[in-house]
Amino acid sequence: MSESPKIIAYTDQYSEAFKTLNEEWITQYFKMEEMDRISLNHPREYILDKGGYIAVALIKEEAVGVCALIKSEHEGFDFELAKMGVSPKAQGKGIGKLLGHHIIEKAKELNAKRLYLESNRVLVPAINLYRKLGFKEIVGAVSPYERSDIQMELDLMN
Asked: How far is CA 76 from CA 61, 73, 130, in A?
């Protein structure tokens, strides 16, 4: 039986994994956009230094999943759940669910009241995961991403 995944806080040693795990899914379904390049090439400056957080899922010390909590620029939201990527070889093992729960708990620790995310409806497993985590679809938010065709929120006060 394979080793259980563990979730840890990002350190700079995982910068390449953070970039690669996200580039895999982005380039499989879409194209890299400017906002992707900024956040993936500079996670410390773009995410961590602004009060955000990145979780890394490890199996046998190998990074197989990542997810970020980025300070939200959307009014009424504290953070954005973003840049969740799971290695194709580790998909279907509940890593995304573990990362999602971990990120939500971290947001609560940071006194967040509402989380935001954006995605694309073609990513059916991701959308289903977000719904299972309690996210609800919203309309009217403006996205810097061409690929974004669904926005969701999670009220952490309930």
From this structure: 37, 9, 19
